[in-house]
Amino acid sequence: MATNQSKPQRAGFYYNLGIAYYALGQLESALESYDEAVRINLEYHEAYHNRGNVYHDLGQNLRAIEDYDLAIHYNPEYSAAYNNRGIAYYDLGEHWRAVNDYDEAIRINPEYVVAHNNRGNAYLAVGEHGRAIEDYDEAIALDPENVAAFSNRGTAYHALGENERAIEDYDEVIRINPEYAAAYNNRGNAYNDLEQYQRAIDEYDEAIRLDPSDPDVYTNRGNILAGMEEYERAVEDYDQAIRINPNYSEAYHNRGIAFHRLGHYEESERDLAKVAELRSQSANTPTE
Question: DSSP secondary structure string, 50-83?
């Protein structure tokens, strides 16, 4: 960097360096660059915003919020900062504070598709399914190929028991992105609720083919197989779920029940004891 650069040029250099490090996944180096940018220019709202994004990616939501606060302080009309602060609040479980930030982002930019989708997610988290669907509707109206909005609206309809409408949305997700494994899992859940069990199994099969690393899909398929009294096949699915996630209490519980149905009482007791152990650990784990 040339030493005769102006102050804004020097701050901009470190800001752009932070962007480059972030793109490379070198988050600590990105932080250092943004630190230097705001040291040189205390009112550099974009640098605060981007540093907040890095902290968020590192799971440090409170520090991320501090940076988004500064970005908004220096630029009160910074819609992305409101949106991303909303994401951090959402991740902390403060869903109504997230809604307030998404409101501001949308006030500033009414066509902010991501903010509509995110506000829908926050409404969904607090049980406001109708308002969530309205936001997903708006996101889809603005971007008719928006996979996330279709998927999330499907989740909202599924939560309301409107499984046919949920399936229609998952159909759209798969039309847009046939490789989206989660959509097959979600469509399988809707078919399961409609008691179309073989169709559900077919969906879980496809989800597993596309993404063999999702323990939930194995558990979902195992649950249907157990309901069909195919306990040995169910156990195989629970085995896979536990292999992927050794702390998956639901899979241990359901495998324990399947073992009991098969007359494997020792294995059943061992699994149910593991469930109790995991739940005890979870109850004693402090939250952020």
Answer: HHHHHHHHTT-HHHHHHHHHHHHHH-TT-HHHHH
Please, what CATH class does the domain formed by 100-177 belong to? mainly alpha
Distance CA 34, CA 63 (A): 14
pLDDT in tens, 59-104: 999 999 999 999 999 999 999 999 999 999 999 999 999 999 999 9
pTM for the full predicted model: 0.89
Q: How far apart are CA 241 and CA 146, in angstroms?
A: 30
232 exposure class (CB count in 10 Å sphere: 0-12, 13-18, 19+): exposed
- List, by residue range, all CATH 1.25.40.10 domains of the chain: 9-76, 100-177, 196-282
The reported pLDDT for the residue numbered 287 is 53
Right CATH number for 9-76 from 1.25.40.10, 3.90.1150.10, 2.60.40.1190, 3.40.50.300?
1.25.40.10
Query: In whole angstroms, what is the distance from residue 185 CA to residue 174 CA?
Result: 11
The CATH number fitting domain 196-282, selected from 1.10.10.10, 2.30.30.40, 1.25.40.10, 3.90.1150.10: 1.25.40.10
pLDDT bucket at 283, cuts 50 / 70 / 90: confident
Return the ∠ at Cα 67 (arms to 64 and 69), rounded to 5°. 110
DSSP 287: P
Exposure string for 56-89, b = 16+ CB within 10 A, e = fewer: beeebbebbbbbbebbbebbeebbbbbbbbbbbb
